[in-house]
Amino acid sequence: MRLILTDGLNSTWHVLFGMMGYYNNIFSILFVLYQIITETPQIDNNMPIDLSEFILGYLIIYIMHKFIDRPGVYDVAIF
Questions:
Q1: Measured between alpha carbons, how far is 60 from 22 in angstroms, rounded to an integer?
Q2: Is the whole-model pTM more than 0.85?
Q3: Which of 6, 19, 28, 35 could in theory staple to 57 by disulfide, Cβ–Cβ 3.0 to 4.6 A?
Q4: What residues make up the domain containing 44?
Q5: What Cα–Cα distance (Å) separates residue 62 from each residue in 21, 27, 35, 66, 69?
Q6: Residues 6+ apart with CB under 8 A from 59
Q7: Structural domain tally of the chain?
Q8: Could you give the angle at which helices 47-63 and 25-39 cross, rounded to 10 degrees?
Q9: End-to-end alpha-carbon separation of the chain, Å?
């Protein structure tokens, strides 16, 4: 098993799919199904790490929306 975020571009895709999964649940469903179908038969699989990277991407967007993108903060009229 590898460490989190050590698989190069593959790890980047997992984080990006997590970010997209925040906005559209179909990305989340398809990613988890893909991980279950392709990683389960292998003995030394990285499914927990891949899912952790996915959750990391999801949490990044969740935290950004929760603490940064507050409604009313940017409602300033510029004339």
A1: 9
A2: no
A3: 19
A4: 19-68
A5: 11, 15, 22, 6, 10
A6: 18
A7: 1
A8: 170
A9: 57
Residue 2 lies in a domain: no
* DSSP code of residue 28: H
Distances (CA, A) of 61 to 3, 54, 55, 58: 22, 11, 10, 6
Q: Give tens-digit pLDDT for 15-53.
A: 999 999 999 999 999 999 999 888 877 776 888 999 999
In a domain, 28, yes or no: yes
Instruction: List the structure tokens of 19.
Output: 């970010």
